[in-house]
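We treat protein structure as text, and this decision shapes the records that our systems exchange. This encoding replaces a full spatial description with a residue-level series of whole-number codes. Below, we set out a record of this kind in full and without editing:
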Amino acid sequence: MPVDITVVQWSSESRPAIRSIRERVFILEQGVPAELEWDGKDATATHLLAHAPGGEPVATARMLIDGHLGRVAVLPEWRRRGIGSALVDRCIAIGRERGLKQIWLDAQVSAIPLYEKLGFVAEGDEFLDAGIPHRRMRQQLQ
């Protein structure tokens, strides 16, 4: 099912939808403490918001100015439909448009196969972030 992905800013009318998706996925589902989720970086980040055909917000992601991709969240009932991949692909395109040499992310270990399919390479050791195992991943753009 195709979704519409738009680039939005934190200061826009999209903020409540972004907050709602991230609260549901990260804070409620995964147990990430609210103080870690709301890290103060949203105001300067580029955000993506995916809407289902009926207009319902179903997924989000953000990219910081340095090419750090993160906060990729898809509502549970919308997973396994390619929405997360579409968000990441859009972030890769934005990175290229900005002339970034690379983009990077800290992937939950369970999501590493998804990111590898999208061209990211894992590096370094596993580490805990908010009690969840992660690995740093990077993709060269130039």
Observations:
- The chain is about 30% helix and 35% strand.
- The CA atoms of residues 7 and 48 lie 5 Å apart.
- The beta strands are 4-8, 46-51, 57-63, 69-74, 102-108, 121-129, 132-140.
- The first helix runs from residue 15 to 29.
